[in-house]
Design goal:
Length: 348
């Protein structure tokens, strides 16, 4: 016997990846339910070699499942996650709705697995922001070795982070620029094809955006509230895969070779770092992969005890769906939920 699992938002980019990764990792699923809004009722999605039809969230009985993977946006999560949790199953929520809630653990399994002990407070676990997940996965082993004082991050975030509409807009604008259609922006505030946009989310009073604030707040909640974090988030014309230029200041000297050795032993991390014309990772290389890749590890001579890193990961996988399924694995491993079946853990 395995678990009874529901995917809310099953027709979206991340929802479909959740279905794929549950199958890839052989998570013990006894029943699988695809849940979506009423307008998507009956839409078919794939789970392994099976095809399942989406059910209406308004009519589904969540008391009949053990685990809910939620990826339908913050508005839907705020309306439904607590109701679902009170019905019995644990909700792993991919939105920002509950990340700041003190009673809701925010988890990256390679970073703060012990936080799973609080899962039963509301029967909700928050999946962090996609850019934060890859950042803290790379920072955690370095912070354990040499305490981090300050981090400066510039992100290069793919359009898939804005959903299917974002991917469609990049595709359509690229064609339009060559004379085949309308290149005016619809999803993004400015043209994204052959351009970069230094704005993701909404502006806050201090001039930063809520996307930038999320990365700071979530790093503090999961890793260390004393780390100073400053972030600039940028949307780039890449379909899948987020990249980050990360500058770190430590409280003791740490050489690039020491950092490479630490990161090579770190769970979830792969170091690809050769001083050659192709000795680094790009988003194209990371798409479809599970790891958080680290390249361009080098000393920053302008600050005391400084290092620079280049961090890349598939934002639909480790940045969202994979991390959610790994949280489900963690729930099983720690006995927060129980099943008589086993599964194949993913290691990178």
């Amino acid at each position: 016997m395995g678990y009874r699992v529901a995917i809310v938002g099953a027709t979206g980019n991340v929802g479909r990846e959740m279905l794929n990764i549950l199958e890839e990792l052989e998570f013990p699923v006894d029943e699988i339910h695809a849940i979506a809004s009423r307008k998507s009722k009956g839409v078919e999605v794939s789970f392994g070699d099976k095809t399942i039809k989406c059910q209406d969230i308004e009519q589904f009985d969540f008391s009949k499942v053990d685990l809910v993977l939620m990826s339908a946006g913050g508005e839907v999560s705020r309306a439904w996650s607590e109701k679902i949790g009170k019905a019995g199953p644990i909700v792993i929520d991919n939105s920002s709705a509950f990340r700041k809630d003190a009673d809701v653990p925010l988890i990256v399994p390679e970073v703060n697995p012990d936080a799973v002990k609080d899962a039963k407070k509301k029967n909700i676990i928050a999946n962090p922001n996609c850019s934060t997940i890859q950042l803290v996965t790379a920072l955690k082993p370095l912070h354990d070795a040499a305490r981090i004082k300050r981090v400066v991050v510039s992100t290069y975030q793919s359009v898939s982070g804005a959903g299917k509409e974002g991917m469609d807009e990049l595709w359509n604008q690229t064609k339009a620029i060559y004379g085949l259609g309308d290149a005016r922006p619809k999803k993004f505030p400015k043209q994204i094809a052959f351009n970069v946009i230094p704005y993701i989310g909404s502006f806050l009073e201090d001039g930063s955006t809520d996307e930038e604030q999320k990365m700071s707040d979530e790093t503090h909640k999961m890793l260390d509230p004393d780390i100073k974090v400053t972030v600039t988030c940028v949307r780039v014309p890449v379909f899948v895969g987020h990249s980050e230029a990360v500058n770190i200041e430590f409280d003791r000297p740490i050489a690039p070779d020491e950092a490479r050795a630490i990161l090579r032993e770190a769970p979830g991390v792969l170091v690809i770092d050769k001083q050659e014309h192709d000795g680094y990772i790009t988003p194209v290389d990371a798409a479809g992969e599970h790891a958080v890749y680290v390249s361009r590890i080098r000393k920053d001579p302008t600050v005391e005890n400084g290092l620079n890193l280049w961090v890349v990961s598939d934002n639909l996988r480790k940045g969202a769906a994979l991390n959610a399924v790994q949280i489900a694995q963690l729930l099983d491993e720690t006995g927060v939920i129980t099943s008589s079946s086993g599964y194949r853990s993913i290691t990178v």
